[in-house]
Amino acid sequence: MNSIYQKLLSKAPIGYLILKKENLQDIVVQDYNKLLLDYLSINDDIKGKKITEAFNDFLIEQLKDIVHGILVEGEIEGVLFSNSFYYNVKGMNLDDNLVAVTFTERAGYLDQYKKTERTRLKLLESLPGMIYRCHFDKQWTMEYVSEGCKDLTGYNVDSLLENDKITYNEIIVEKYRESVRDLWKLAVANKSIVRTEYEIMTAAGETKWVYEQGQPVFDEYGKLIMLEGIIVDITQQKEREERINYLTYFDAMTGVYNRRYYNNTIKEMNSEESLPLSVIVGDINGLKLINDAFGHEYGDELIIKTADLLKESIRNTDVLARTGGDEFVIMLPNTTFEIVKKIVKRIMQEGEVINELNNDSPVQISISLGYTTRETMDEDLGESIKLAEDHMYRNKLFDHKSTHSTIIKSIRSSLLRRGEESEENMTNMEKIAKEMANRIGFNEDMTGKLQILVSIHDIGKIAIDTELLNKEEPLTKDEWDLIRKHPEMGYRIAMASIELSAIADYILSHHERWDGSGYPDGLKYDEIPTLSRIVSIMDAYDAMITERPYKKKLSIKEALEEIRKNAGTQFDPELAEIFIRIVREFSA
């Protein structure tokens, strides 16, 4: 540029900027005057710099538009906005790649705009949330934010203004940034309102859900000036909505789908695209007994463990639902019969591993499974599900014996942990019981019942506080009355289970006495079931040879003498004599 003209321009009451477009991407500052730097609040020398290095994002986008307009039209007039000021802009083409842009401040329209804005913003300050006015740039550079900014974001107003400490773009959680920008692009193009919800990250590192409503603001020439709007905290509303939605389709206890979702899934999967469609139906074994014997918290734990096992054993495309208290259904789209068989096998094997790792826990997973596969649309889906249920019930009958054994083992382990029995004493009692059954001439069924009864006849004590059972001081009348109820408690627990109902009467009567002075019913002689009479002797003997906090243990000889002394009053005399002979033989 001619030095004379350059000198004149440098002293002219306008800002000027000479730009060179070196290629399709790079625009470089060739020259400028001091007034331009004042207008744009720039302190550094920008000569020779690319505009992407010299200016902020908001200015860069405006300058690119201006340069493009000059190169296309030769000369242009327009408006540029920066630092809350508006400028008349004129541009001309100096040669193929060199352009000149002059800036003249336009205060009249801006002053009126600001006056209106001050009045309006003062009214808006009373609203909850954060009122804002920002540039449409990559950082959402804030020109104004209300004091609600602190409560909403945790950042002071000054931290956000002009991106002093942080940009609003950084506050928006990353996965929402692009979608928020796309909504604003559409609003600017259509001159419409934005309404959106997204998450932000506060200064304290917490996430909040916010609702934003805003609109682009244009000047009298239709040029975009700013974006403005309000952002409010909707975290609590969002959490309520999510909770409602969760409870609508998910089981609150296990986190798997519920029956309502399952019913919708049946409709969705009743299609050609799901074929072959396999179904697994599962039913937890022994849940009622676990609830009655150990309490509902253990029953809930069993349900949760079972649900976790099923979740871990299936694929993301499968749908697992809890359809009842102890019932589960799995829908497996695009799954052949051979694959579903492998999945069921894997579930059962993983269940065994979990039980082995938690061998001491009374909560042992036992679930009966049935399955089938729908191959064509000609097969009725409801009928396929019923076939899986029938298969499950057949398996449940076969599983009965192992379930029965697992539950007995769990109850036995629980009594041992509570100190009601020692492992050694219980094992010895089971051996003595088997020998008594042989000598009396019991069949296999009665022998099995006696051995189970010896292990769990005190099941009712599970419902009594351990501290009371081991209390060293004399029991009060109320405490003694509670302990005397354990045969009835045990009876109710056993009757609640198919597995134990056959020995419930024996549990109820194991504290009856030969002379009729026992409890709870005062039965005597042959009114007392034989198995109960045997267990009465064995229970008394076990108590005498076991150390308790409230008494010293007796020797085997002393305990047998007590049995003999009470034969005919507390114990059946014939059974007492058989018992004494067996114990002496085992002790010799």
Helices and strands, with pairings:
Layout: H1 3-11, E1 15-21, E2 27-32, H2 34-40, H3 51-54, H4 57-73, E3 75-82, E4 85-93, E5 98-105, H5 107-124, E6 130-134, E7 142-145, H6 148-153, H7 157-160, H8 168-171, H9 174-190, E8 194-201, E9 207-218, E10 224-233, H10 235-249, H11 259-269, E11 277-284, H12 287-294, H13 296-313, E12 319-322, E13 327-332, H14 337-357, E14 367-374, H15 381-417, H16 423-440, H17 444-456, H18 466-469, H19 477-483, H20 486-495, H21 504-508, H22 530-544, H23 556-566, H24 573-587
Antiparallel strand pairs: 1-2, 1-5, 3-4, 4-5, 6-7, 6-10, 8-9, 9-10, 11-13, 11-14, 12-13
Helix pairs in contact: 12-13, 13-14, 16-17, 16-22, 16-24, 17-22, 22-23, 23-24
Fraction of residues in β-strands = 15-25%
Strand order of the largest sheet: 2-1-5-4-3
User: What is the total tally of β strands?
Assistant: 14
Q: Quote the distance from N terminus to C terminus.
A: 124 Å
Helix content: 40-55%
Radius of gyration: 42 Å
**What's the story with the biggest beta sheet?**
5 strands, antiparallel
Structural class: alpha+beta
Shape: elongated
- Mean pLDDT across residues: 86
Number of helices: 24
Which stretches are poorly predicted, pLDDT < 50 over at least 5 residues? none
